[in-house]
Amino acid sequence: QLQAFGGGLVQAGGSLRLSCAASGRTFSSYAMGWFRQAPGKEREFVAAISWSDGSTYYADSVKGRFTISRDNAKNTNYLQMNSLKPEDTAVYYCAVQAPMRAIVVVTTLYDYWGQGTLVTVSS
User: Fold this and answer.
1) How much of the chain exceeds pLDDT 70, in percent?
2) What confidence tens digit (pLDDT) does each residue in 3-49 have?
3) Between the CA atoms of 99, 45, 42 and 76, what dihedral angle is there, to the nearest 10 degrees?
4) Hey, CA dihedral for 14, 105, 97, 92, is it positive or negative?
């Protein structure tokens, strides 16, 4: 089970931190990722982190602004979003890929999904 928290309304240039807690089954190797879906658009990859070694992956559109991290003890990952832009407005979803595969940017390669949390960035 995945639970995502932290969405809300923020002005452009502001910051938000999303969190996603995982519970239930445990895996020896997995990745946790974030995707987002804006109205009328397809769900797209935002960021992912390898739970075993902490390797991180980002979409070009968020590099340098978003940071994904993990807390192993809490089975929780965080998405720190800085310098937010109106185009970041979307429902953000966390997901788990277990076991971790070579490709982390494709939605269909994720096995478990949390409920979305809405992020709205006003101009």
Assistant:
1) 98
2) 899 999 999 999 999 999 988 776 678 899 999 999 999 999 999 99
3) 70
4) positive
Alpha carbon distances (Å) from 28 to 31, 34, 110: 10, 20, 16
DSSP secondary structure of the chain: -EEEE--EEEETT--EEEEEEE-S---SS-EEEEEEE-TTS--EEEEEEETTT--EEE-TTTTTTEEEEEEGGGTEEEEEE-S--GGG-EEEEEEEESS--S--S-GGG--EE---EEEEEE-
Q: Which stretch of 63-67, 84-88, 113-117 has the lowest confidence by average pLDDT?
A: 113-117
- Residue whose structure tokens are 């020896």: 28
Residue 21's Cβ-side half-sphere holds a number of Cα atoms within 13 Å equal to 6
Amino acid of residue 66: F
Residue 102 CA to residue 90 CA, distance in Å, equals: 26
